[in-house]
Amino acid sequence: MSDVTRRRHGRPVHHWRRDVVELAALFTAVAVADGVANLIGHGPDGPALLLISALALLATAAFHTWWARRHGHAPPPKDTDARPAAVERRQAGPSGRSSAARDDVPTVSALWRMRTTVRDEPGSLAALCAALAGRHVDILSLQTHPLAEGTVDEFLLRAPGRLEASELILAVASAGGSDTWIERADAHDLVDAPTRVLGLATRTALDAAELPLALRQLLGRCTIRSLPGRPASGGRGPEEVPAEGVLEDTVMRLRAPEGGVITVERPYLPFTPTEFARARALVELDTRLGPRIPRSQDVLTLPEGEAITVRRADTSDLRAARQMHERCSTRTLGLRYHGPVGDANRYLSHLLSPRFGRTLAAQAPSGRIIGLGHLLWDGDETEVALLVEDDWQRRGIGAELLGRLVGMAVEAGCASVYAVTQASNTGMVAAMRGLGLPLDYQIEEGTLVITARLDTTAATCRLPYAGRLEEYDRRALRD
C-alpha cells in the first residue's frame, strides 16, 4: 500500500484488520503466560525453571541490545508514514532543484532611483506597487510630487541584481506609469528626505559657500551657475529675476542673495514644483542669514621656523588682498591671472565671494595676507588657483593651501579639480604633482591645464564648518 493511500489529511489511516490481529496476539500472550505460571507453580522443578527463564530473558535482551547498536536501523519509511526530507525538497520545485540549495546562494541586490508619472486617481499607486512586488522589488522610500495633471512618484528601490532597468521600466509602464526615468543609486540615497534637507540647511546656515553644493545635492545631477549682478569685466548684468523665481521645465532661475542670478539646469529631467519650492526655500534661508564664513583658523610653522595662519577669507578681506597685489611682482600676477596686470584687482570681488567658491588666506605674523588659494565652482567642474607673495614663495605655502582646497573639493563630492597656468609656472606644477593624485595635462595656445582626478582616500578632508561646530560644542559644555 502506497504512502498516498495510507495517509489522509496528514494523519495515518487505521484499518480494522490490524486491530483484530493485535487483539488476538494479546489473548495468546495471556494464555501462554498462564500456562507457564501453572507449570512452574505445580511442578517439582519450579524454582529451577523460573531461574532458567530469567537467565534466558536476560541473554535475549543483551543480544538484542548488541545487535541494535551494531546494526542500527530505523523502520522503513513506508511503515512510519515518513518521507525523506531530501526527497521532499527535490519534489518541492517544478524544476526539480533543491530549494535549500537555492537558499544557500547569496542574493545580489541593486539600488535604483526611479521617477514615473501616474494618474492622480485612487488605485494608481497601488497598481504600481503591485507591479514592482511581482518582480520582487522592495520599495525603500517614496516621495510624491503633485502636478497639475497627474503625480510624479519618486522611488528608492532595492531590486534583484539580475533585474535590468528596461525590465523595471516595462513593469511600471504595464501598471500605468509614464515618462519613467531610472538610474543606479548608492548608499547615500538611503538617507530619508527630511534628514537630508535638514542637513543641507545646516550646512548652508554655517557657510554661505555651501549654497551651490547644497542645491546640487538637493536636486541631483544638475549644472548650477551664479551670475553676479555687476560683472567684473563691466557691461550689462543678467536679466533680473522676480523675487519668487522662475521655473521653466528643466531650468529654474532664482534671485541670488547679493542681487545676481542663480541658474539651475537639468536637461535630462524636468523640475517639479515641489523641487522648485525646496530650492527657493534654501536660497531664502541663505538670504536671511547674510554673508558668513566659518572663522576657524590653523597656525602652521614653516621649515624656517616662522608661523603663519591659514583661515577662510571673503569680501571683507578685499582691501588686504589688494595690498598683497601691490606687493607682488608683475611676473607673479601675470602667471596667476593670464592677462593685463592692471585688471587683477577687478577680479578680487568675484574671487572672494562665497557665492562662487571658497577662499583660503595665508596670513603672516604681522597680520597681512601673503597668499590666497581659491576653490571656484565652474558649473560641473571645479577650478583651483593660487597666488603667493614673492617674498614668501618656495616655502611650501602654496602646497599647503592647495592640499586644503583639494580636501574641500573631496568633501564637496567633486570628481576632479583643474588648474589653469603656464608651463613656466614651475611652482604651480610642482604643487599639483605633490598632491599624489592622477594628473592629466593639456596645452592649448601656451596655456597649461592640469586636471587632478580626486580620490577620497588620497586627500585629507577637513569640513569647512568644523571650527563653527567645535565652537557650538564648547558652548553646550559651558551651558
Rg is 41 Å
| Form type | elongated
How many individual β-strands? Answer: 18
**Largest sheet descriptor:** 5 strands, antiparallel
Mean pLDDT: 79
The helix/strand class is alpha+beta
- What is the first-to-last residue Cα distance? 85 Å
% residues in beta strands: 15-25%
Low-confidence runs of at least 5 consecutive residues: 1-11, 73-106, 456-479
Percent helix among the residues? 40-55%
So how many helices? Answer: 17
Strand order of the largest sheet: 11-12-13-14-15
List the helices and strands and how they pair.
Layout: H1 3-6, E1 7-8, E2 11-12, H2 16-42, H3 46-70, H4 77-80, H5 85-92, H6 99-104, E3 109-118, H7 124-133, E4 138-146, E5 151-160, H8 165-174, E6 178-184, H9 193-206, H10 211-219, E7 223-227, E8 246-248, E9 251-255, E10 261-265, H11 273-289, E11 297-301, E12 307-313, H12 318-327, H13 330-337, H14 348-352, E13 357-363, E14 369-378, E15 381-388, H15 397-411, E16 416-422, H16 426-433, E17 439-444, E18 447-453, H17 466-478
Antiparallel strand pairs: 1-2, 3-5, 3-6, 4-5, 7-10, 8-9, 9-10, 11-12, 12-13, 13-14, 14-15, 16-18, 17-18
Can you give a write-up of this model?
With 479 residues, the chain is α+β, with helices and mostly antiparallel strands. It has helices spanning 3-6, 16-42, 46-70, 77-80, 85-92, 99-104, 124-133, 165-174, 193-206, 211-219, 273-289, 318-327, 330-337, 348-352, 397-411, 426-433, 466-478, and strands spanning 7-8, 11-12, 109-118, 138-146, 151-160, 178-184, 223-227, 246-248, 251-255, 261-265, 297-301, 307-313, 357-363, 369-378, 381-388, 416-422, 439-444, 447-453. The strands form 5 sheets. The protein has a 5-stranded antiparallel β-sheet with strand order 11-12-13-14-15, sandwiched between helices. A 4-stranded antiparallel β-sheet has the order 4-5-3-6, with helices on both faces. A 4-stranded antiparallel β-sheet has the order 7-10-9-8, with helices on one face. The radius of gyration is 41 Å and the shape is elongated.
